[in-house]
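Exam revision sheet. Question 4 asks you to relate a sequence to its structure. Input first:
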Amino acid sequence: MLSRRAFVASALAAPAILRAKKTTDIRIEEIKFGYEDYLYRTPIKFGGTVVDKVTLINVDVVIKTASGKTQKGFGSMPLGNVWAFPSKVLKYEETLNAMKVLAVRINKITGAYKEFGHPVDINVALEHEYLKAADAVTRELKLAQPIPKLCALVTASPFDSAIADAFGKLHGRSSYATYGADLMTHDLSHYLSKDFKGEQLQPYVLTKPKPRMPLYHLVGAVDAITASDVAKPVGDGLPETLPEWIVYSGLTNIKIKLNGEDLKWDVDRVVAVERAAAETQKKRGVSQWVYSLDFNEKCPNIDYLMAFIRQVKEKVPAGFARVQYIEQPTKRDLKSDRANVMHQASKLLPVVIDESLTELDSLLLAREMGYTGVALKACKGQAQAVLMGAAAQKYKMFLCVQDLTCPGASLIHSAGLAAHVPGVAAIECNSRQYVPAANKGWDQRFPGIFNPRDGWVNTGQLDKLGLSAVA
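Answer key, structure tokens:
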């Protein structure tokens, strides 16, 4: 099987493969982008870093068919540089600037691409060029650390989303209903492997959204659990402790960020969350709720993870029984961390890759190393998300969708992905906690998504044309 990089290189060497084979194919006519900046109402800590602001990249595109029909599309995503480009040698401003410089290159590359195709074909063809641009920016800025592939995917994702959005609108349907044989020239083996010979993408992507999904609420590593943890109240009328959030949003799904560098702290954190949640849920008359645990790759090794599991089971057995899955416990670079296999842990509950998932090869390697699930993210690109979602379903892996604290249109993209991929059971909407200012206006159009109050996100609202964000 060809690696994704080798496939893309071969595709570019034979451009006729990507030329219009259907009258429904499109090409890019115009593309441009801009930024929005917001401060968080309260900081979030993950992966050992505290974040208190976000820069959104917004992309507008015009696509055109061979017959001359045009359509506009829109895409948006946070430039999550702390997550996508973690560094001990580069400052926040340096990694953010690198992503902005790369965005200029990606905009130029995308705008200059004039082949006709389905949005998935266009993204597959351009990804290799985006990665070459990332290498060029590394050299141009003389960065002490190269721009990672994940960072390039995040920077390019709103461009991909904008094209997918326009394509759906052009054909008078949801973007999630554009993955059938009527619009796609190739079967899945063209993008993934021979395991998918003769299969279409559409059965792995729902044409209609699930009507509703449970809301996963985040407890960041510096978030207040109880009132005694609140050193300085925000005072904006929103909840400030976990019990307050449980009551306010009717929570039954809680995601706990862990440090992975202090075993006692990690265990105590889960114990504290379980005690606060149990007391609050008892008052509400709720007996069933679940947790997910996210180490953001900070566990030094599998031994740390297993010790953590043993201690949590001993101290709060009921709390451990509520854990739905564990996310990315050790290093994202699986190839350099082959010793930390997850077979032992995955016998107990699903262990999911997130930062590690950048192509099919990494998914297959993760399976070999004992991981049993994948976290899809709209910030890695619409095309990659649906392709990796198909692969995960084919290989019967646990599926979840994470949202990179996406506000506004980017949350619509993320929520839409979760609502249209079979097997994804819950949804994250972290921006309502950390950056509600960026949701202004959106919360009036989609109240059941931006301000869910009964523990459920009304994903049935995501049934509009394109990616549902902008008419």
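Marking note for examiners. The chain has 16 helices and twelve strands.
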